[in-house]
Write a structure and sequence with these properties.
This protein is of the alpha+beta class. The chain is built from 3 helices and 5 strands.
Amino acid sequence: MKLKSEYVAHSSGTKSLLVPTGGAEWSGVVRGNKTLGVILELLREDTTEAEIVASMRSRFDAPEGVIERDVAHAIEELRKIDAIDE
């Protein structure tokens, strides 16, 4: 899976944004935290949910299951707005 080219991701510090371009069917702005920013960064290249989780585990210290839940939720929300190529 990969972030569609019709979406532009931007992260600064602890805040992240995902904005559709004119070619996207969805309109609006997705605002998120640093976790979403890392997920969006990883989705710039073709990847899998398992690879995203593994990368997040190497960057963040979190209790068992938290990273998996956060990644699954973010991907689910990105699918809802059709921001991911599968």
